[in-house]
Amino acid sequence: MTAFDVRPITEDERRSTVDVLRRSLHHNRITDDAWARTGKSWPAEHKFAAFDGGTPIGIVSSFDTGIAVPGGRAVPVAAVDGAGVRADRTRRGVLSALMAAQLADFAARGVPLAVLHASEPTIYGRFGYGSAALGKTVRVARPAGRLRERVPAGGEVRMLTPEEAVKELPALYERIGLHRPGMIGRPDLWWPVAHDRYAGPEAGHLVAVHSGPDGDDGFVVYATVSRRSFDSPDEGAVLDVHDMHAAGPAARAGLWRFLLSVDLVSGVRGRHRPVDEPLAVMLADHRHAATLAVEDDLWLRPVDVEAALGARAYRAAGPVVLAVADRTLPGNTGHYEVGPDGVRRTSAAADLALDVDTLGMLYLGQWSATALADAGRIEVRDEAAVARADELFTTVTAPWCGTHF
Ligand SMILES: CC(C)(COP(=O)(O)OP(=O)(O)OC[C@H]1O[C@@H](n2cnc3c(N)ncnc32)[C@H](O)[C@@H]1OP(=O)(O)O)[C@@H](O)C(=O)NCCC(=O)NCCS
After folding, report:
1. Where does the N-acetyltransferase domain start and stop, copy by copy (predicted)?
2. Which of 157, 217, 355, 358 is buried deepest, with most CB atoms within 10 A?
């Protein structure tokens, strides 16, 4: 067992801890210039590090924001935006100790939910996070892929200069709003790293904005990966969509129409798109859109189970009693009656029993209770309750985060 202390970092330890994270993810140490541009994305606040002597060997980081939950409310959430342990100190309990400190802090501060994106799907279940929203990777072949005639149209697309993008995107994202369960607010500290992609010295991304009858209502940040060369003149470029948000179907269609109209392109690819984005059926021939992968996108942990369950809305159905087990935050362990009229702790017998990470999978509506019971993640004590839980928790719109952090 390695000896180490876990504590919040100080202002002076920001840069050494960002480097622990970067090295764990196989990036180079941050340069002076990059730190000058993006250092404000790494404040000392809400960071815990493990230290051996004075040297940081592991780090977890988060920022506070809001998340849309089923029913449309925005609920406070801690977004975990970094976890890394120095390569010579892994598998000795460092992350476990950091996660315990971080979760205790979220609980003490009354944050009801925590979310993250996982580098590997096997890491976070043990800490109570469940795979709560999926994303799909799609590729539309060009030039064959084009939209059907009756797909909503009418707006205009304009490309932004890097300076315009830095100025306009934060307000535009806010204007579009958190209209899907799983979408999170982007606080000021989130933007500097994003801006580097289109306005930094090595910027490889372009930005286009859609305007509809009420003004700007969508944007796309994309990279051009060119495979065209003197020896392969017929190879087109691939447009890689990094970040795309639209306030409604017309804006979404307008942005895709624009991407599919760019010359010398053999394909447009989007990663972590909403699983129910109807791109294939927007095309004249839906076979020109291929789903290349469906992967876990957002992981969610109820930190305060009663507050989390009480924050979202439920569809009309009879209530169910859930027995929730939580090893890391044992105060959550208990029985909860959940129904359209509200949520309360109860001593009634449970209909369904599940661990808190499975509750995270159920929470945004991505997975049905039936699927989770079939997978052995929900223990069914009353068979009829599964259908009621399906009805209560399922959402019409698939959850989706759409923000990299
Ligand atoms: C992922 C990482 C932070 C784990 O840190 P760690 O200090 O090794 O984790 P711990 O020793 O506390 O491990 C706790 C448990 O999780 C398991 N675990 C940890 N990392 C794992 C991984 N990558 N895959 C599978 N299991 C893992 C451990 O085996 C251990 O299991 P046990 O409780 O049954 O013994 C570390 O490996 C790392 O920095 N990886 C590279 C960067 C990265 O992927 N960061 C995550 C970004 S989302």
Report:
1. 4-164
2. 358
Q: Which domains does the chain have, with CATH numbers?
A: 5-116 (3.40.630.30), 136-296 (3.40.630.30), 305-393 (3.30.1050.10)
**Predicted confidence (pLDDT) per residue in 258-301, tens digit:** 999 999 999 999 999 999 999 999 999 999 999 999 999 999 99
Please check if 71 is assigned to a binding site. no
Local structure of residue 392 (DSSP, 8 states): H
Residue 319, token pair as written in the block = 């209530």
What does the pLDDT look like over 20-31, one tens digit per residue?
Answer: 999 999 999 999
For the chain, the residue count is 405
With a CB cutoff of 8 Å and minimum separation 6, the contacts of 167 are none
Q: What tokens appear for 142 in the block? A: 């060009």
Write the CB contacts of 224 (distance below 8 Å, at least 6 apart in sequence).
Answer: 204, 206, 237, 238, 239, 240
Cα 124 to middle of ligand 1, angstroms? 8
Check pocket membership of 87 for ligand 1, CB cut-off 6 A: no
Is 180 assigned to a binding site? no
* Tens digits of residue pLDDT in 57-92: 999 999 999 999 999 999 999 999 999 999 999 999
From the list 88, 91, 14, 90, the residue with the least C-alpha distance to 49 is 14
Residue nearest ligand 1's atom 19 by CA: 123
